[in-house]
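thread: overnight batch results

M.L. [08:02]
morning all. the overnight job finished for the chain we discussed friday. pasting input first so we're all looking at the same thing
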Amino acid sequence: MPWSIPKRVIAIVLALIGIAYPVLAYYGLTHFSARYLLWVLLALILARAALFWVSARIGPAIIALVIAAIIGVIGYYAQLSALRLYPVLISLALAAIFAATLKYPPAMIERFARLRHPDLDAYGVAYTRALTKVWVAFFVCNAAIATTTVVWGTLKQWTIYNGIVSYVLIGILFIGEWPVRHWLRQRYDNRKQGE
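M.L. [08:03]
and the structure it wrote out:
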């Protein structure tokens, strides 16, 4: 089903809100009650699930609904913790999705790579599989650090890590992988020519 302009705009707005969530939550918690913000967060997650559902993306819709359910249950008992757990749940969901593609190939990074290089060779497949494992480890570590900011950190520390540091780390991994990939590929090609 093709995406209409309103669906694209809604998807972009929801994605931007998701990216800016820690900063928006920090601002909101300093000006509004946690209960109010919890309802707003749940509404945004449910809107995202609905957008996935009408776009026939059932898997992501179910993941969004599970995240909403977890936040709703935790929010019933501890509203502030539920609001701060959202980045943890997103990192764990990403780790699970990437890990699932290792069990049910092609690996997530291979899927991305094949968008530009449909004829990926055996070396490329092995490399993208290894890189997918690196991303799984990154998301698990990110979730662990984000959890420590929820449990032991202040709201300011939580915001700085989840709203700035984690994105910088994602950027470093994403950009830093490029020269490593080219260096390893060149080394592999040189070794193969020497045979």
